[in-house]
Amino acid sequence: MTSSTALRQFVLKVHARCDLACDHCYVYEHADQSWRARPAGMPVATMARTARRIADHAAAHRLTEVSVVLHGGEPLLAGARRLGDLIAALRQPLRGVCDVDLRVHTNGVLLDHRFCELFREQGVKVGISLDGDRAANDRHRLYRDGRSSYDKAVQAVGLLRGRYPELFSGLLCTIDVANDPIAVYEALVAHRPPAIDFLWPHHTWDAPPPRPSATAYADWLIAIADRWFDAGRPVPVRIFDSIVSAGRGGASFTESLGLEPADVLVVETDGSYEQADSLKTAYDGAPATGMDVFHHAVDEAAGHPGLEARRGGLAALCAQCRECPVVGTCGGGLFAHRYRGDGSGFGNPSVYCPDLIAVIEHVQRRAARPAHALPAAALRSLATGYGDPDAIGRLRGAQAVGRRVLVAKAGAAGPAAAFDVLRRVAESAPEAFDSAVAHPYVRAWAVRRLRAPSEPSAPPEPSAADEGMLAALACTAAWRAGMSAELTVAVRDGAVYLPGIGRYPVAGKESTTVRVRDGALHVDAAGELEPVRHLKAGTFSVALDDLDPYRDCHEHPAAARLGAEGFARWQASFEEAWTLLEKEYAEYAPGIAGALTTIVPLEAPRDGGSVSSAARDAFGSVGIALPARPEMLCLLLLHEFQHVKLGAVLDFVDLYDARDDRLYHAPWRRDPRPLEGLLQGTYAHIAVADFWRRRTHDRDPETAAEAGRHFADWYPKTLEAVRTLQESGALTGLGEQFVAGMRRTLEGWPAPGTAG
After folding, report:
1. What is the Cα gyration radius of the chain?
2. CA 217, 220, 225, 226: dihedral to nearest 10 degrees?
């Protein structure tokens, strides 16, 4: 059984009444009034049965931890002794099955030492609802006789912060645009909470929020966000942290944002399973499942259509949301806020849609995204399978930043003299430094140097040749910068290789001196330079590197140095292949021309088949065994550059949950693949299917027929793989958007055998 449909968060209603009369409360003041027919408190036997159901679910799905929130009403109305009995009944069945992150959400007015000692003993974190300063809090949070609850709530916060700081989980504040946002924020921060959670007031399209302006709620949050950023983000704020994280492909930390599947189940005081409490604002009975802990397993509740709908990700959203540029961060907003009673149900944007867009865009701008971050427009372009010149430029820039970091880390552990030269070039001639380290296999060397000793591909210990690469790179950088340098460089396999320049044969020595003076390179005791040669087609030129000692990192062996005849064959085939690519596959050509710098010739397979590869740690390079026909070289260039692009995206953006260790069927392979392997293969085969699709229109009937057969094979396989990715449940919000873009490209083509 997989954990993709597992529920990990449980809200348990231990007491269904409240000692305050907050007029914005979703339990008592909105459409659903089911609380009236339920017992005030949860019996201990019901809690024990609930815990057994959670334990069975955790064991079946191999969960290592579940999150449980004791909720209400007001949970402290149960009393300290009763709460202690309920917690004991909860913990016992779960002991030895999984850990429990146990919390209580309270208005705080009853919190005292008795409760705190109980919570300390049982490891229960405490979140307090407080809407800001006295004026803001007393706008809604009053006793039934109109008295203020502010002093009691603040006293509870002081008790936690002063005597029980390890229990304090944070403050929950409901947004009210009638309150001064800065006064609210400063009042909350003054309590030095470990976190602040701003909550959207619950409204639907049938009962919309009061709105003084089109983006009143965004404006309120933006004012706070600016103060928060300007102060250096002094406290975690869940909505802002979620926007920053989800915008970069990471997780959201709140149910109201992001495309992650909702995994919350509510258990009422009578043992009924319900969906999220926020649905109480939609219509009477909206949260109900018709199931309970006495007759139904958690898995049965998890399969309820309402809970399934909240796990549907991008595909479950309305068309307007799916096309929105911030949907990967927004996720359509809170499910309940999409409701409209005109028959469309929850198939609408959030009633806060304009506010969500505005606050997400503002926070992401203020988050000072690093130079190597990939903007949403670039990801959307790359998701099509092509990638416009700007998107490829962004990838190239991101990789440049990453290379600088890698080379600096690898170099710092190498010979001091070489690293000093490299550092001086980076400081005084950064363009020359970037040019030197841009050679793809410099990155491959740096990654190899930095791998932990326990990793399979890590070198057993730094070798003289590995150390010598740093000196060779420093000499190359100094030469490109027009600076002087003199370094000792290790000889490897009878030669000194300078990245991207070529190889100097050096016989009978373990090391030699390389001098850089007046724009010239001199290698002591060396023979004539064997240069890295370049293939040319029109204005496009790419290195054919058959010398680099780190090039042999592809899935297939690298070929030895080519003779003049072998290079001439490559040149002729490359020129024809590139001409075809520019003519028939024009969408791909600018990206390849903008980022492909190196081709490594691979050994030809004995069976005469095609062999090609893209090394994950060598951006800008592909490995290819020269095929017999130039059009096949064109196909291999298209195919492998897809891997180059997607590998570069994955260096900086999380498209899937790296913890997913399942294997998936890839229609083009016999062996199942990990998720990244399936994603890589699917993205590459978009170009393969596209190659054959376009050749079905060739004037030569035999060529067109061959292409038709291949397209009829590759197209359904690639589309099947896209569906497998979308159904995996392991894509991040950005991953869902990215794969949806891949699918739109495929479904935009006429299917095999149809006209078009």
Report:
1. 31
2. 140
402 sits in the region (left: phi over 0; alpha: psi -120 to 50; else beta) called alpha
Instruction: Give the residue from 739, 753, 741, 737 showing the smallest Cα distance to 247.
Output: 737
Which pLDDT score, from 0 to 100, does residue 258 have? 84
Cβ-Cβ contacts under 8 Å for 290 (sequence gap 6 or more): none
Report how far apart, in Å, the C-alpha atoms of 627 and of each of 340, 569, 591, 608 are: 60, 10, 23, 8
**32 confidence band (pLDDT: 50, 70, 90):** very low
Report the DSSP beta bridge partners of residue 265. 10
Confirm whether 336 is domain-assigned. Answer: no
User: Within a domain: residue 585?
Assistant: no
- DSSP letter (8 states) at residue 235: S
Structure tokens at 176: 């009210």
Name the residue with higher pLDDT: 606 or 425: 425
Would you say residue 374 has pLDDT above 80? no
Q: What is the mean pLDDT of residues 673-692?
A: 96
| Digit-coded pLDDT (tens) for 449-507 | 887 554 555 444 445 456 678 999 999 999 999 999 999 999 988 999 999 999 999 99
Which DSSP helix (H) or strand (E) runs through 523?
strand 520-523
The percent of residues above 90 in pLDDT, for the chain, comes to: 68
As a whole number of angstroms, the distance between CA 683 and CA 697 comes to 23
d(C-alpha 78, C-alpha 41), whole Å: 7
Tokens representing residue 754 in the block: 């149809």
| Tens digit of each residue's pLDDT (9 = 90 or more) over 289-317 | 999 999 999 999 999 988 888 777 888 89
**Helical (H) or strand (E) element with 624:** strand 621-624
In the beta sheet, which residues pair with residue 544? 533, 599
* d(C-alpha 577, C-alpha 535), whole Å: 12
Which residues contact residue 417 at a Cβ distance below 8 angstroms, ignoring those fewer than 6 apart?
471, 487, 488
* Distances 697 to 588, 691, 711, 756 between C-alpha atoms, Å: 18, 11, 12, 10
- Tokens standing for residue 656: 């899937």
**3 state SS for 156-191:** HHHHHHHHCHHHEEEEEEECCCCCCHHHHHHHHHHC
Tell me, what amino acid is at 509?
K
Q: How far apart are CA 683 and CA 739, in angstroms?
A: 9
Taking the CA atoms of residue 464, residue 469, residue 475 and residue 478 in that order, the dihedral angle to the nearest 10 degrees is: -140
**716 DSSP 8-state letter:** H
Handedness of CA 421, 422, 423, 424 (dihedral sign): positive
The arrangement of strands across the sheet holding 621-624 comes to 533-537, 540-544, 598-601, 621-624, 612-613
Domain total of the chain? 1
In terms of residue numbers, what domain contains 462?
Answer: 413-529
Specify the pLDDT at position 467.
Answer: 65
Would 456 be classed as within a structural domain? yes
β-pair type (485-490, 264-267) = unpaired
Closest CA to 741 of 388, 449, 385: 385
Residue 734's pLDDT is what? 84
* CA distance linking residue 130 with residue 127, whole number of Å: 10
Q: What phi and psi, each to the nearest 5 degrees, are found at residue 250? A: -90, -165
DSSP 5: T
Asked if the structure places residue 594 within a domain, the reply is no
Rounded CA separation 642/683 (Å): 6
For the ranges 28-42, 78-92, 639-653, the lowest mean pLDDT is seen at 28-42
**Average of per-residue pLDDT values in the chain:** 90
What is the spatial distance between Cα 202 and Cα 32, in angstroms, rounded to a whole number? Answer: 13
| pLDDT for the residue numbered 314 | 84
Q: Are 443 and 618 in contact (CB under 8 A)?
A: yes
